[in-house]
Design a protein that fits this description.
Elements (H helix, E strand, L loop, with lengths): L6 E5 L4 H12 L3 E6 L2 H11 L2 E4 L5 H14 L5 E4 L10 E2 L2 E2 L2 H27 L12 E6 L12 H21 L4 E8 L5 H4 L3 H9 L10 H13 L7 E4 L9
Parallel strand pairs: 1-2, 1-4, 2-3, 4-7, 7-8, 8-9
Antiparallel strand pairs: 5-6
Helix pairs in contact: 1-8, 3-4, 4-5
Length: 255
């Protein structure tokens, strides 16, 4: 699929990999709708790339539905969805205060897994109703979700996060199989250590220690590299139903 002239939706678009992806897609000629709960950063980036800023809580059906109504009325039918919204808290199942609160586990699943599904169900529905295909292959859309290497090698304290990202990985193929009849592809990217605002805020010695764990290149991934992979997935229509690790060959240790 060609990016130029398409309509793209990016969740978690106010910062990190979402912001880098939004900038990349806009530079390639897409009209971008940015969804996030961080209103000030969202509006600033939307102005920068001439995009559409929509404050949206991905965990709430009514918030997501209202967002897609805005997208439809102001931009049109989306062809691209990139789900980047997520949280990454760490908590042991049995800690100093006893058992992990159930709400803490549920919240991570709600944002990372259910939130991604909430948005993709609406994007897929809109794409499926497109009157004409975008190319001779019959393509009508591309959905790209964000997992993590923690889906495979979760560290101590990451039970909730790993479960949420494992769910993203597991639904990739069944979604691709189901949506194939509409000409909609579904892919997932599983990043390793990325220089997001969360990691960038850590002491330099901590960042250096994390970077040293990457076999090659020995550094944290850049959000722009995630965006570049998003671009390649969109361009290459044979990429479907698969998870791509973006991790420099890292395999996370227990802690």
């Amino acid at each position: 699929m060609q990016i130029k002239g398409t309509i793209a939706v990016v969740t978690g678009g106010a910062s990190g990999m979402g912001a880098a992806t939004a900038r990349f897609l806009a530079e390639r000629g897409a009209k971008v709708a940015l969804l996030d709960v961080n209103e000030s950063q969202l509006i600033a980036l939307a102005r920068e790339i001439a995009g559409l800023a929509i404050v949206c809580d991905v965990t709430r059906a009514e918030s997501a539905e209202a967002a897609f109504e805005q997208i439809s009325s102001k931009l049109g039918c989306p062809s691209i969805l990139v789900n980047c919204a997520g949280i990454c808290p760490a908590s042991r199942v049995v800690g100093k205060e006893g058992a992990m609160p159930l709400d803490a586990f549920s919240r991570v699943i709600e944002v990372n897994l259910i939130g991604s599904f909430n948005i993709l169900r609406l994007a897929a529905s809109a794409m499926s109703l497109r009157e004409s295909a975008l190319n001779e292959s019959g393509e009508r859309g591309v959905i790209i979700n964000t997992a993590s290497v923690a889906a495979y090698e979760g560290q101590i304290g990451q039970a909730a996060y790993s479960a949420s990202k494992g769910g993203i990985v597991s639904m990739t193929l069944p979604l691709a199989r189901e949506l194939a009849r509409f000409g909609i592809r579904v892919m997932t990217i599983a990043p390793g250590l990325v220089q997001t605002p969360m990691l960038a805020g850590m002491p330099q010695e901590v960042q250096d220690s994390l970077a040293a764990q990457v076999p090659f290149p020995k550094r944290l991934a850049r959000p722009e590299e995630f965006a570049q992979l998003v671009g390649h997935i969109i361009d290459n229509e044979m990429l479907n139903g698969e998870v791509i690790r973006l991790d420099g060959a890292i395999r996370m240790q227990a802690k």
